[in-house]
Amino acid sequence: MALQAHKKIDDAGNEENDDGGDYDDEPVFKFSKVTLSSSVSRKANDDNKSTPDYLSCIAVHERFLVIGKNTGDILITDHLGTIIPQFHIQAHTYPVNAISIDANGDYIASCCQEGRVKISGLFSKNDDQLNAFSRPIKAVCLDPFFSKSKQYVTGDTSLILNERGLLGRHKSTTLFDFKGGLIHTLRWKESLIAVANDRGVGVYDLRARRLVGFEYTEPQPGFAPGIYPSRVSWNDATTLVAACAKTIKIVTIVNDPTNDHQSTVPKKSMNIVMTFKIEFYACGLTSVNRDLFLLGIEDYSIANGVTDPSLTVLQSIDRNYEEKAHDRFVLSRNKDTSPFQFQLEYLPDERCFFILSPYDIIKAEHRNYDDHIDYLISKKRFDEAIQAFEQPKNTTDKPQRHTKRSVYQEYVKELIENGQSKTAVKLFPDVYKTAEEWEEQIQKFIDRKELDIITPYIPTVLPKLNPTAYDKVLETYLSEKKYDKLKELLTTWPSDIYNVTSIDHLTRIKMDDDHTSKTLLECSAILAEKQGNVVKTLDIYLKMRNIQVFQLIDRKNLHSEILPHIETLMTIDKNLTLDMLVNHVDILPVKSVYNVLQKNSRFLHAYLDAVFSKNPSDTRDYYTLQVTLYAEYDTTKLMGFLRKAGSYSIQDAILICEKKKLYPEAVFLYGRAGNGRVALQTILDKLNDIEGAIAFCRETGDQTLWPVLIEASQNKPEFIRGLLNHAGSDMNLKELIDSIRDDLRIPGLRDSLCKIMQDYNIQMSLSESCRKIIVHDCLGLRKKTITLLQSGYSVKDTDLCAKCHNPVYTSGTLTNLPVSVFFCLHVFHTKCIETNPDVCGVCSTTSLFGAA
């Protein structure tokens, strides 16, 4: 995982600000301490000088670590710090200054302050050596292929090549005398050897046996030489990186164009291609794929020692270097710790770094995706942590240690600690998977008086908790008098997850007949139902006038139990009660319901009306009573009832309607009773409705009513005008006009007469138009008939005479008998019908043919 860069260094060594975004302080590395199985006796900040036991140098190999101590001991451990006893080397009695390992890991070279160099074979002692020099040896380096060449180099003020001479004797050759400046670092790459001393950095070509070049370092003002030693690292066989204090130099090794062509070994030269400054002091360096990894400190003083170190990554991009990480870490040290005591080594196989101080070995590894999630969690950026887990940017970014649950667990803890319990509980189903975890959280929420928050999320199936946990929740709500919550849980939770009997007992203890909460009564009803005592539940709901009683009746099929409680149910919800009664007439007969409701006429009317609307025949025994009830409570439905119902007492109905002055209904009843004259008179006298009177006369079709209507209208101009406006064939218009007195003033008479004349003209016009259409159609049909009669008819040789049943003619014969064809398409020989040639003997009603 790379961080956003905040600094760039170009090939001229200048620093540039990166406008690519804000610097993200997420570290690139994770640091862990490598604990040796036999720890050093002196720790950081320990001023006990009697046991000056510390670590002096380190070398790494893909199979092990080699660690030198100030006591002269050399420890060989695995990468976790476990000492491998069989490889323990007691090489020196003075501090070990440097260690080198060949490429195969078969040989180890070490040097010490007393000038001794020890070559130790791990698997063979045949090539072990112990060579003494006249000066302290600060650096030693094995040929990577030492097992073949038996060569290594050492350094004091000169670079010395050591090898086996004749008869296996030690042979040393001074390759180059640097004339001052003690060599402290040697790095072997193919035929080139990088040398670093107190004065600078140089490269020696072992094949050409000449110094390629030497670059002097700038003196560090205020510091003695060697406080910040030069660190070197080969990037490849042609590129060397050198760091000294705050200066970085990139050196390339190239073939010198002035080389003598007669020489078999090309002459090389050393060029400085880039020099730039950094903001900290470099104490260690390694180059990996052209990227630079620097161990650095911010400051050093003799009085206070070194500051906390950091590991910095400078990424090579084109010809620039861009800072990708600057991760600080903690390293054990004291005020006597100096920068030159730090060492940085790289292990390519594991892509990790080992950092040495006198009292610690720190392993630095690139952070993986789990570490990235750890960082987000540590910074309380849980939304990003969850997103990183669920939606990784790359398919390869798959956490191995973290799970969705572990991320949510940390998130939940943080939310609860910050008082965001409502948000936290939404994540509980993803976090807590066992009953024990849920029970623990429920108890915590009860203790914090936050039970309402977790209740909606408490599982009832997977996982299913211990019944005591559910009991605890219900008892808490009961004790806190949160009866609404208690009712909600009793309704939604299955009854098999808690102790119903125990909760019912506690509920009854809480109940007070005088001041019992309605909600608590509902809880009691629910508990009774869950125990199978539905009758008790029904009684409680009826007592409370609770509308849930209808759900209970339907759910438990209690229709046969409700007959005594119908009036109570009607007061709770009349419509629901009527629907229930009407839909269960088989269980609750009309007569039984009538007996219950007969003292409450309003409820009785509503019930009979509902039954009649669904099935009129069910209330036939109460039709006459219903007339009274409709007249009393719902006159708008009375006319429809009178028309639809049949077997009620018409006389009683007429009396009721007359009493209630329901004259339209009375008119209908008079008409049904056959007393049209009284009905007509009622319309005229009580309703004063000429339009209704005319409609009544036409509806009954009784012609004797028209004279009565005309006579009753003689002194009423409005009635006469109404009759004139509705004059038709069913009314004697002449009689109506003759009945009008000459002195009677009739408003709108002229308009009515004009309308009559217009209607007459329209009628005559329609008659004439119809006559013309009929004449036209008749002429067309006549022409069509004549054309049909004049057309011929094709007779085939397969046609038979309808009388003799012989073919009417024979094909191929020149002469055939004459043939006659009637309009009914029957065919005859003319000879066969000569007795009656104008009549078809088949279609005639009287058979004209005798026996064939």
From TrEMBL:
| Domain Vps41 beta-propeller: from-to ranges | 53-365
Q: Which GO terms describe its biological process?
A: cellular response to starvation; endosomal vesicle fusion; macroautophagy; protein targeting to vacuole
The domain of life is Eukaryota
SMART domains per the UniProt record, alphabetical: CLH (SM00299)
The question of whether Protein transport is a record keyword is answered with yes
Coiled-coil intervals, chain numbering: none
Q: Where is this region: Disordered?
A: 1-26
Q: Which InterPro entries match?
A: ARM-type_fold (IPR016024), Beta-prop_Vps41 (IPR057780), Clathrin_H-chain/VPS_repeat (IPR000547), TPR-like_helical_dom_sf (IPR011990), Vps41/Vps8 (IPR045111), WD40/YVTN_repeat-like_dom_sf (IPR015943), WD40_repeat_dom_sf (IPR036322)
Q: Which SUPFAM superfamilies match?
A: ARM repeat, WD40 repeat-like
State the UniProt keywords alphabetically.
Answer: Protein transport, Transport
GO cellular component annotations of the record:
HOPS complex; late endosome
* PANTHER family given in the database record: VACUOLAR PROTEIN SORTING VPS41, VACUOLAR PROTEIN SORTING-ASSOCIATED PROTEIN 41 HOMOLOG
- Protein name according to UniProt: Vps41 beta-propeller domain-containing protein
**To which species is this protein native?**
Adineta ricciae
